[in-house]
Design brief:
This protein has two domains: 250 residues, D-Maltodextrin-Binding Protein, domain 2; 243 residues, D-Maltodextrin-Binding Protein, domain 2 (3-Layer(aba) Sandwich), CATH 3.40.190. It is 42% helix and 12% strand. It has 23 helices and 18 strands. The longest helix has 21 residues. The termini are far apart.
Length: 572
């Protein structure tokens, strides 16, 4: 695969907001694994290069450099999917341990993740540190119970440089009622980063096999009708390939009210006013996406595709972690995926498997409904997961220093690029993998990931470095794609559409959980309905149950939470 050379000016400081948080994991200290990837954020720390052999003078050393003796601590990672990427023994792990002396022992839940976490909290059997979704109630419960150290306090005593690295927006939005910060959030993008970035929208668009697209004459596919015809033509001309796969699973509790990544994409196409979010504003009131008639038409469109025999039904309930291999073996003519994964993972694997470029994927254009421009919420937001130190920690100072390292420029670039002179060089102020490293990526992506471990150790990513790393491993086509769709993103920060869910212990919280389960039950039935009449009756039945479950009261609470969020973002 031809890859783009890094010839970009340093003014592109945050080319994109990364969609990746990566964790390592396993239950024991002798083996561990990491997580999937999600977009993250940056700090205002001064730029440096990643020379892990630091100055020995305490006067010039960062706090994490002052004690590099061997140290291990237990770190709980909230998602079982964190077992997806092996990392133990990688070169990056070696570099980071050499720099800090630290090797986290990652604990990943087995079975039901929520139950695992709640049992751990109830028994007060907490690890030294935890990575949790900051907005989930368990995080709030841990903080309010006094089981989590304030980052401010630990930093003041052990890592005074850390607080200066954290953007003011992060500290302002995530501080608790006492004015302190209790976790370091990933996936938090500043206004400046968002405005300068390319990868702004959260859509996982559709991709088509290059050979199939060209074999059909490279047709323009700018409407739903043309997309449907494309799938029909694929079925007729290429009977040995599955025409279309919905990125699995369809699961409201896992992927939000839209139901799946693919449905989120179609929501932004058919119902741009929703921005493909679970909730949107209508006349300054919160509405649920399933109340939007245009979103319902998006679901109906997928139902139509299904009834034409064009959707692989097996993907509807497939585990998401298993879907990647089907994409990497080019089993589908058209599929959805996170863009960087196509160029960085799937296409290289397809080439390694088939040595046939015609089977690799290229993006389909974003088609339009009734001429409306697609719209998706932008990746600038309040963050996703938070890294925190518990009161059970035997050495909280050492852990916060490790967090400082992870957040620092040194930690970011080491995690993402390795060591200057060995795995990368600085070119025009930006890191660029050495040619021999890129050759290994092109030759064997799996071995590349396991050998080097780039991306697999950072607890909290910053967009500047993560953006540069994405550009480094992707061909020019990736940047071209980002430029082509950058206008489809809407910065929702000032709109106040974050942190809306009711407290889970409240009546409205219980009602909302019930509503999600009801919608989850009916959504797949709507996609698989045999007729329009069956589709309509299924939707009506779903809404009747949802309304009876307390929909209006839930929306009232969400509207109030929305107003609070707006005020908080304005600093009130």
């Amino acid at each position: 695969m031809k890859r783009k050379q890094f010839k970009v000016l340093a003014t592109i400081m945050a080319l994109l907001i990364s969609v990746s948080i990566v964790m390592t994991g396993c239950g024991g200290s002798d083996s561990a694994q990491d997580s999937t990837k999600e977009p993250v954020t940056s700090s205002n720390a001064p730029e440096t290069t990643a020379d892990s052999s630091a100055d020995s003078s305490n006067a010039t050393q960062m706090s994490w450099q002052k004690d590099t003796s061997p140290f291990t601590f237990d770190l709980y990672f909230f998602g079982a999917w964190g077992t997806g990427y092996p990392w133990r023994g990688s070169l990056v792990e070696k570099y980071i341990t050499e720099a800090t002396g630290v090797t986290p022992n990652i604990i990943i839940p087995t079975g039901n993740e929520k139950e695992y976490l709640n049992v751990m909290i109830a028994s007060n059997d907490l690890p030294d540190a935890m990575v949790l979704e900051w907005a989930q109630p368990e995080t709030k419960k841990l903080i309010q119970s006094g089981n989590i150290y304030a980052v401010d306090d630990l930093a003041a005593e052990h890592a005074p440089e850390l607080m200066d690295m954290i953007p003011a927006e992060v500290k302002s939005y995530h501080k608790q009622d006492d004015g302190k910060l209790y976790y370091l959030p990933s996936f938090f993008g500043s206004k400046e980063e968002y405005e300068s970035g390319l990868e702004k929208h959260n859509a996982r668009p559709l991709f088509i096999q290059k050979g199939i697209y060209e074999g059909l004459g490279s047709p323009k596919v700018d409407t739903p009708e043309k997309f449907l015809q494309l799938l029909k033509d694929i079925k007729a001309k290429y009977p040995n390939v599955k025409p279309f796969a919905i990125e699995p699973p369809v699961d409201v509790n896992q992927f939000g009210l839209a139901g799946s990544y693919t449905l989120q994409y179609f929501a932004g196409i058919f119902a741009p006013e929703t921005l493909a979010k679970d909730q949107y504003l209508e006349n300054d009131k919160i509405k649920m996406i399933f109340e939007n008639p245009n979103y319902v038409e998006a679901v109906r469109f997928l139902n139509k595709i299904y009834n034409e025999g064009l959707i692989s039904v097996d993907t509807l309930m497939m585990k998401h972690e298993n879907f990647g291999e089907t994409t990497s073996s080019a089993q589908y003519a058209v599929t959805g995926s996170y863009p960087i994964d196509i160029w960085k993972t799937h296409n290289p694997k397809i080439m390694a498997l088939t040595n046939d470029e015609s089977k690799t994927y290229i993006p389909l254009e974003f088609f339009k409904v009734d001429g409306k421009e697609p719209q998706f919420y932008g990746t600038r937001g309040a963050g996703w997961v938070g890294s925190m130190v518990t009161k059970k920690a035997k050495n909280p100072g050492r852990i916060i220093r490790y967090f400082e390292y992870t957040w620092s420029d040194e930690g970011q670039i080491t995690n993402l690029f390795g060591r200057e002179g060995e795995t990368f060089e600085m070119v025009n102020g930006m890191p660029q993998y050495k040619a021999e490293i890129m050759k290994e990526l092109d030759t064997d992506a799996n071995n590349f990931a396991n050998k080097y471990g780039f991306e697999s150790r950072a607890l909290m990513w910053r967009s500047k470095w993560a953006g540069w790393q994405k550009i480094a491993v992707a061909p020019q086509a990736y940047a071209d794609y980002l430029n082509s769709v950058k206008d489809y993103a809407v910065d929702v920060w000032d709109m106040g559409l974050d942190n809306l869910d009711p407290d889970t212990s409240s009546n409205e919280g219980v009602a909302y959980a019930k509503i999600k389960n009801i919608w989850n039950k009916y959504l797949s039935k709507m996609i698989l309905a045999k007729t329009d009449a069956e589709f309509d009756s299924t939707y009506q039945a779903a809404m009747k149950e949802i309304e009876a479950a307390g929909l209006e009261k839930v929306k009232e609470v969400m509207t109030q939470n929305h107003l609070k969020d707006v005020a908080k973002k304005k600093g009130n």
